[in-house]
Amino acid sequence: MFTEWKNAKIIISCRPEYFDEGSRERFWPKENGKKGFQELTLTPFLRAEIDQYIKKYADYYSKKNDSQLSWNADRYIQEINTIPQIEELVCNPVLLKITLNILPELRKRGTSQINRIVLYEEFIKKWFERAQERLQKIQLKPKEKEEFNRLINEDKESFTKHCLQFGKNFAFEMFVNNNKVVIDYDPINEEIKSNWARFLGDEDVKLRLIRFSMPLFRRGNQYWFFHKSLRDYLISCALLDSLKDSPQATLFNMQSIIPEPAIQQFLAEQVQQMPEYEQPLFDFIEYSKRNPNIQIASANAITILSRASIQLPLNLNNIRIPGADLSNRVFIYSQFEKADLNKVNFQNAKLQSANFEDASLRDANLQNTSLQDVNLTGADLQGANLQGANLQNANLEGASLQDANLTDANLSDANLQGTKLRGSNLNYIKF
Q1: Which PANTHER family does the UniProt entry name for this protein (predicted)?
Q2: Claim: this prediction has a pTM higher than 0.85
Q3: Does residue 296 sit in the same domain as residue 370?
Q4: What contacts 205, CB < 8 A, 6 or more positions away?
Q5: 3-state secondary structure 31-55
Q6: Are 300 and 339 contained in the same domain?
Q7: Which of the residues 100, 105, 142, 148 has the least number of beta carbons within 10 Å of its own beta carbon?
Q8: Per-residue confidence (pLDDT) for residue 66, from 0 to 100
Q9: CB of 230 within 8 A of CB of 120?
């Protein structure tokens, strides 16, 4: 096909995933080959460019004879500005256009609040609907046609359901496999039972059709979602789907979400909007008191509930939540007796009058934490960071603070009887 374009100087494409290294040679000029070939990639839109695009979009579609555009440019800009963290999505021209396409429809349906979750959900659904329409229009091979008919004939939304499930499974596999964003898959060198073959192999016709319909980029042997936020959103959906599973089988217990604030935020927003998710998360925390094997799930659960600003019970004795992120939260009068709080992030938290008797807080981050009147009797705080913490009138009797950082901490009127301080940093402490 390319040889027919005798005088072509520039070729513009929005589908770079279809060009592997071999296909690029087809674009080389005959005169000087590779030396005469140059490839350029457009950078994401800036805020001013987003506004400019919206104005041109509204102007163009308002002039079409069959235009059903009900919003002008100012209305689009106003609506987009009300959606938190939307700019990282609409800086992509393709995603911006789809956003402009679905926003009026959402409002028309009476959606009272347009937020990120609603937008992502509608965007994914719209993407798969358009993929289905595209497959219906192109000429498929007989086996592909047969399999496609099976996919669409189960029920009205069966094709979308199959695609969505594939997307969730693929995204979560990326997450548990070293939190990958880009997948390298070489069918020649991969083992037959490779985890990626069940997503990226070509032998299964159904698999090929679904993968073709996914919002994925492909370049050579590399695959990735064309925006990381789509991957993170699908991971959050897969995690919430697994809440119906047993504590041991749930995906929540397979991988910590603590290093991924974006996934945490998607989960927190969905829990805020769908309260039915709250109880299973509370159950993980409760189960951890009796079962040490679900501490990943319990740490993930309490992190999400805290990020969603959902009130936690005062009685948290014996819970196991190592590594959880509870920074900037309020736990006044909370009970953490004999709890496993190793490596928990309590930075800037308010913990006045809380009970940490015999709790394990090894390597915990308590920087700038309010710990006035807390009970830390017998607590293990080895290696903890208490820099700038306020421990006024705290009971540290018999506590271990070996190798802890107490720089700038306030220990006035604190009970330090029997406290182990060997190796700790005591610079600029206030007694």
Answers
A1: BTB_POZ DOMAIN-CONTAINING PROTEIN KCTD9
A2: no
A3: no
A4: 143, 144, 147
A5: CCHHHHCCCCCCCCCCHHHHHHHHH
A6: no
A7: 142
A8: 63
A9: yes
